[in-house]
Amino acid sequence: MKKNQPSMHQIAKLANVSGMTVSRVLNNSGPVAEPTRQQVLRIARELGYDHYPNALSRILRGERSNSIGVLMSFARPWLAGNIISRIDRRLFNTEYVNYIVDTYSDPVVILRALETLAERRVDGVIYLAYTPKEMNTEIEKLLQRIRHVVIITHQELQVPFDQVVCGWSPGARQMVEYFAACGCRRPVLLQESPIAACRQLFEQACGECGMSAPAVITLRPEIDTDEAFERYLEQEFGTDFPGDAVFCSHERFRAPRSYLQRRHPEIPLAAVMDEFLIDLQRPDFPVLRRREPESGALACEMLLRRIEAPDMPPRTEHLPMEFLPS
Predict the structure, then answer these.
(1) One fold for both 8-53 and 67-166+292-324?
(2) CATH 3.30.70 fits 8-53, yes or no
(3) Where are the domains of the chain?
(4) CB count in 10 Å sphere of residue 42
């Protein structure tokens, strides 16, 4: 604190409140009516009062650190930025700050980050765990050292934490119903990696709609043109395309779409897309819109509620993808 600055007593006198009220406002240590809070802060600024509460002292007294950690991979910068933006909007006008960590989906980085956040006594963590390697026994143990945790995931996990599940259901079934309405009976599922949840839901929906089990094609990175896609199909299936409908369960659909437009324009295509690609490409085919950006605000809301009511049992909120017909 600088010398010759006004005291809390002076601020209290000018604001016509008690010294305890001024202390609560300046140290953020208790409930104060919002008009009174703003009046005290205004007078403190006008008088040049520059005291800030000592965060370490509050932590050592067992109080909140007024901070949360946000752990995610920035492999998709647009998505990460939008999730963080929604978290920041929710934290605006609260006393909380966040520590943002790019995990690179690397368990070593995740463990180090969690150790640091635990040492800093953050009040909670929002953790994006989309791949199996982003959740293991060691990571779960470290998460349990954090006071409160909300996990954003694609598939519900068997862990004792709050979860936001950005899942495929009921979107996968809506996609199959669309194909069935088009008269299709032999769908093809194109996937970038073996996503068990999507494939299982897609196969189940096909069975319920009277369609055969889908042919599953896992696209490799080198299949990046329609010619490469055609050569792959000839090697794997012969000259005929193995189905009468195509669902791309990821966003690398340019090569399959180009091939279909050239060789099989009668075969309907649908794909998963996020808002950025939808706005950029204005697709003329059905899509499942990823809603992960919305998970940031939902996870933040759940975490703040958890901090206020820590004895609630773990909760799971589902945020399914949205089906957008052409």
Answers:
(1) no
(2) no
(3) 8-53, 67-166+292-324, 171-289
(4) 12
Question: What would be the CATH architecture of the domain defined by 67-166+292-324?
Answer: 3-Layer(aba) Sandwich (3.40)
For the four alpha carbons of 295, 296, 297 and 302, in that order, the dihedral sign comes to positive
CB 276 within 8 A of CB 78: yes
> What counts of helices (H) and strands (E) characterise the chain?
13, 12
- φ/ψ (deg, to 5) at 70: -125, 115
Strand, helix or coil for residue 198: helix
CB distance 94 to 64 below 8 Å: no
Which distant-in-sequence residues (6+ apart) come within 8 Å of 52 by Cβ?
none
What whole-number distance in Å separates Cα of residue 287 and Cα of residue 22? Answer: 55
Average pLDDT of the residues in 243-247: 94
The single-letter code of the amino acid at 248 is C
For residue 204, what are the contacts with CB-CB under 8 A and spacing of at least 6?
Answer: none
pLDDT in tens, 99-148: 999 999 999 999 999 999 988 889 999 999 988 889 999 999 999 999 89
Q: Is the pTM of this model over 0.90?
A: no
Task: Return all residues near 159 (Cβ < 8 A) that are at least 6 apart.
Answer: 135, 140, 143, 151
What is the per-residue pLDDT for 179? 95
> Given strand 162-165, what is the order of strands in its sheet?
97-102, 67-72, 124-128, 149-153, 162-165, 316-318
